[in-house]
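Recap from last week: sequence in, structure out.
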Amino acid sequence: MMGMEKNLAIIDTVEVQQVQSIMEKITQFQQVVQRTLRPGHDYGIVPGVERPSKPTLLKPGAEKILMMLGLRSEFEIVDSTRDFEKGFFQYQVRCKLLKGDTLITEGLGSCNTKEKKYSKMDPYTMDNTVLKMAKKRALIDATLLVASLSDVFTQDAEDLDADELRIDTQKSYTDQDDTISKAQAKKIFAIAEGNVELVRKVLEECGYEKLEQVKKREYDTVCSRIKALLASGGREPGEGGK
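Predicted structure tokens:
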């Protein structure tokens, strides 16, 4: 009963009309964001990941939202490990969103070289990559908080590289233009064990910028190349270790 009384006491201090006005503004802003952001660039879903109920907000989309709100971001490394003997690197980053000099909200993000997507890569080349990823995750976390967009977008650590591959999630993976199907696109990610960096590397080698550009006749070549790099730990066949 005591907890209920405290809750009622708080509600009694609230100006209902003001709350209603705020909620209406939040809804209107969410609608503007949904109309303005571009699928496959500002938000989207990575092929190979079970389709969630909400799309993932990507870095370009977060930056546009902050521009709409007139906010600027500042980053602070709150914890890090750079172990050059064991090859382990990790960063925890805080993103502060400010209006002028006033702190509005904060977001946190972390990344490390033992994440599945980096497990087959040379950890000594990933120091800057995991720092950038931690900053990106902190930025998106803060943006979702400040813009009240958690019921519109989600943030999934496995999805945050979608903007780097520039995957157009609105385009259907059909047989048009003799390109791979949606099922084949998912299979490529499955073969790569979710390693986005590896998929991007192979796509670049084959002359593609986007996954949906891969021709059906080169599907087996892409898969074989990914398997070969996985088997060699990300090195070219014949290359020795350091």
